[in-house]
Amino acid sequence: MATYKKRGFKPKTKAEIQEFDEQESTTAEVFSTLDEGASRTEEWVSKNQNYILGVIGVIAVGVLGYLAYVQFVQKPKEMSAANEMYYPQQYFDQALGATVAKDSLFTLALEGAEGKYGFLDIIQEYSGTKAANLASYSAGMAYLNMNNYQEAIDYLEDFKSEDAVLGALAKGGLGDAFMQLNQPSEALGYYEAAIAHSANEYTTPKFLYKAGVTAMEMGNGDKATGYFERIKEEFPNAEQAKNIDAFLGMAKSVQ
């Protein structure tokens, strides 16, 4: 076993001299190997310098190009799209609260008027922006209210959002559209997706109720009972909880 040598150590015995020489030789070999590796690295860098600089240049140009695109193209596009949303959104909001001419107001929201864009124009002209994504939601809901269920499905499926309420409403809207098309299995799947999207006092009891009613219509009393029990236990103050015992009784009678 090698022994730690103090500074100024001089081997005296033959064995110590041999061990000292071996350690000196090993150290020399290590430094020699490092020198050879460094030389090979320097040689490779020297031979491939133009290639390396080219790669660095391409990366730099790509980064600068992306930053320029975001700053001078994407941001102005987002701002312009957001401004365009103001006009159709007004008609959409009016239609939701109207008692007459609802379809006419929804049509104005969808198609625009007086030189102003509607939701459909924004989706086409500002594709990839947040405003265009939101316009897909609004267009889908407009078509749903106009009883154009396939169009509602097409646009709501294009809408993507992590927002707790809007994301759930979009999935629930898809459920409503499929239910109107007499496709309860697909409807139930979307109601369940709406429930799973987020837990809140507004959308969760709403779609638990719709899921329960749909499950009953499909003859699945156990599943319906589970949904109605969740409303009773988790959301006792929700609108859907008012007559929940009656629905629980109906669900439990379904075989």
CATH topology category name of the domain at 84-253: Serine Threonine Protein Phosphatase 5, Tetratricopeptide repeat
CATH architecture of the domain at 84-253: Alpha Horseshoe
Low-pLDDT stretches: 1-7
Distance between the termini: 83 Å
- The value of Rg in angstroms is 35 Å
CATH class identity of the domain at 84-253: Mainly Alpha
Give the gist of this structure.
The protein is 76% helix and 0% strand.
Describe this structure in words.
- This protein has 255 residues and is mostly helical.
- It has a domain at 84-253: Tetratricopeptide repeat domain (Serine Threonine Protein Phosphatase 5, Tetratricopeptide repeat).
- It is 76% helix and 0% strand.
- It has helices at 14-47, 49-84, 86-97, 102-111, 119-125, 130-145, 149-158, 164-180, 184-197, 203-217, 221-234, 244-253.
- Helix 7 (149-158) runs antiparallel to helix 8, helix 8 (164-180) runs parallel beside helix 10 and helix 10 packs antiparallel against helix 11.
Give the arrangement of secondary structure elements.
Layout lengths: L13 H34 L1 H36 L1 H12 L4 H10 L7 H7 L4 H16 L3 H10 L5 H17 L3 H14 L5 H15 L3 H14 L9 H10 L2
Helix pairs in contact: 3-4, 4-6, 5-6, 6-7, 6-8, 7-8, 8-9, 8-10, 9-10, 10-11, 11-12
Features:
255 residues; 12 helices; mainly alpha; Serine Threonine Protein Phosphatase 5, Tetratricopeptide repeat
